[in-house]
């Protein structure tokens, strides 16, 4: 059964990614994405991460870390995601955070590199 897509080519919306760090903190990053392709057979969008909108680092209990307590090396990796393409299921348009494994951010997994030439 095919799910209808909410967005069409060229549409922009926000996506919220979450990673858990080795020290149990969480990184939350919101990107504005642009739909570049739609695969109706697999109910997926191909989107480009157009802009980094906002982010925060928080403890496992939800306490927001002050700027001097964040991990700059991970935030640099987050900023480097701008311009990348990713393949996301239509369910991404529900606005809920997408929890990803840390290797997707550290480039040990090709999630954000799949469309590199």
Keywords:
elongated
Offer a quick outline of the entry.
This protein has two helices and five strands, in the order E-E-E-H-E-E-H. By secondary structure, the chain is mainly β.
Give structural notes.
This protein has 117 residues and is mainly beta. The chain has one domain. It is built from two helices and five strands. The protein has helices spanning 72-79, 102-105, and strands at 12-20, 26-39, 44-58, 85-89, 98-100. It has a five-stranded mixed β-sheet. The longest helix is centred in the middle third of the chain and has 8 residues, at 72-79. The N and C termini lie far apart (33 Å). The model has no long low-confidence stretch (mean pLDDT 94).
Question: How are the SSEs ordered, and which strands pair?
Answer:
Elements (H helix, E strand, L loop, with lengths): L11 E9 L5 E14 L4 E15 L13 H8 L5 E5 L8 E3 L1 H4 L12
State the helix count. Answer: 2
Oligomeric nature of the chains: single chain
| Domain module tally | 1
Secondary-structure element pattern, one letter each: EEEHEEH
Largest beta sheet, briefly? 5 strands, mixed
What integer value in Å does the Rg equal?
15 Å
User: What portion of residues belong to β-strands?
Assistant: 35-45%
Sheet/helix structural class? mainly beta
Q: How are strands sequenced across the largest beta sheet?
A: 4-3-2-1-5
Roughly how much helix do the residues carry, as a percent range?
10-25%
Task: Give the overall average pLDDT.
Answer: 94
